[in-house]
């Protein structure tokens, strides 16, 4: 069948299963070309003119179910009913497109746009009026354009935040689903292997939906900060131990928010939760250096061992800058500098502050004594 005049291809989508009504057809994993006038499955020589479509709607998938689009159509005429077709028509005047490989949202957007444009309807010839000349209004005109641009930017920003709020609302059912499935896994511990349980939970963690605590679910500020403190301990305990028993509060802030997914927390909440660590008797505490830098450290963290390790490293290399120590011991530059300053305050190190930067040496006077 030749293409209609003015037809343009808008979108291509593969991995689509076709349904005639609610019945699955034999056309599986099809490739659909969406044009301004039709939906075409070239491999099976099939097509659907968009002027037949009454409406479309999304059908969201679920566990083991793909997202779909329902396409409702005008009924066929008596003359059209007798035409031989690849698929026998059901009573329902609708078809379903099942997106097994994803792509439902984008396809729906293009299909909806094409139905609104109605490119198959002839457009009346437009009479061109006189061309309006833009009148330059000097500074007043420039200020007016700037004011309009600011209003448009504000509208765009507001729309962006609304979209973010909608995304967070859509994530809440996924959190409930994850919690429900986790509960079922615990209830059926004997029927599901430990490897399968760990693998499923890793999938949930990778999506960032491990049911983080919120102020709404906690009920009160005290319970919220104590619950957040426990959550922080679960997230940070192993990374802090891997980092030598200490981590800056800025690094902790980034790691906690990355693990919480969409339920982000503010720096003030992180600080208050750190101050609540002592209330829940966890082996982790907040420590502030003389410079004001705040860190989290584990209870088994030994300052003596850290200083001894630092002195051993210095004996082997002779001297350290904060940057060199950061690279050598796998620490952040801020934390490396604080450890050097702390050792200097106890007389273990001497500094050389020159145009080449700050460098620390072992205190030979102390060692000779």
Based on CA atoms alone, the radius of gyration comes out at: 33 Å
Global geometry: elongated
Number of helices: 12
SSE arrangement, N to C: EEEEEEEHEHHHHHEHHEEHHHEEH
**What share of residues are in beta strands?**
15-25%
Report the mean per-residue pLDDT as an integer: 78
Class by alpha and beta content: alpha+beta
Unreliable sequence segments? none
Distance between the termini: 99 Å
The total count of strands amounts to 13
Tell me about the largest β-sheet: 8 strands, antiparallel
Helix content: 40-55%
What does this structure look like?
The chain contains 12 helices and 13 strands. By secondary structure, it is α+β, with helices and mostly antiparallel strands. A hairpin with a 7-residue loop joins strand 6 and strand 7. The radius of gyration is 33 Å and the shape is elongated. It starts with 8 loop residues before the first strand and ends with a helix.
């Amino acid at each position: 069948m030749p293409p209609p005049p003015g037809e343009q291809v808008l979108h291509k989508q593969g991995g689509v299963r076709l349904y005639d009504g609610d019945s699955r057809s034999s056309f599986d994993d099809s490739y659909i070309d969406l044009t301004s006038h039709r939906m075409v499955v070239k491999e099976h020589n099939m097509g659907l003119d968009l002027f037949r479509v009454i409406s479309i709607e999304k059908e969201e998938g679920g566990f083991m179910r793909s997202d779909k689009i329902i396409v409702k159509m005008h009924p066929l005429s008596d003359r059209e009913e007798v035409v031989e077709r690849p698929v026998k028509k059901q009573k329902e005047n609708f078809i379903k497109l099942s997106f097994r490989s994803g792509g439902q949202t984008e396809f729906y957007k293009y299909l909806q746009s094409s139905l609104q444009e109605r490119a198959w309807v002839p457009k009346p010839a437009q009479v061109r009026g006189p061309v309006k000349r833009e009148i330059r209004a000097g500074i007043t005109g420039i200020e007016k354009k700037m004011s309009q641009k600011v209003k448009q930017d504000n509208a765009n920003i507001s729309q962006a935040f609304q979209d973010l709020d909608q995304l967070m609302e859509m994530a809440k059912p996924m959190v409930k689903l994850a919690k429900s499935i986790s509960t079922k896994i615990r209830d059926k511990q004997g029927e599901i292997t430990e490897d399968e349980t760990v693998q499923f939970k890793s999938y949930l963690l990778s999506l960032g939906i491990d049911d983080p605590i919120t102020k709404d679910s906690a009920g009160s500020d005290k319970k919220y900060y104590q619950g957040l403190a426990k959550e922080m301990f679960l997230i940070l305990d192993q990374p802090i131990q891997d980092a030598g028993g200490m981590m800056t509060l800025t690094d902790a802030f980034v790691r906690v928010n990355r693990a919480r997914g969409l339920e982000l927390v503010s720096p003030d909440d992180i600080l208050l939760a750190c101050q609540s660590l002592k209330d829940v008797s966890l082996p982790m505490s907040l420590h502030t250096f003389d410079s004001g830098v705040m860190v989290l450290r584990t209870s088994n963290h030994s300052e003596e061992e850290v200083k001894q390790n630092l002195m051993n490293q210095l004996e082997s290399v002779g001297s350290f800058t904060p940057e060199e120590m950061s690279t050598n011991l796998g620490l952040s530059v801020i934390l490396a500098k604080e450890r050097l300053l702390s050792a200097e305050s106890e007389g273990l190190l001497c500094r050389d502050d020159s145009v080449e930067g700050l460098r620390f040496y072992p205190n030979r006077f102390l060692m000779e004594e």
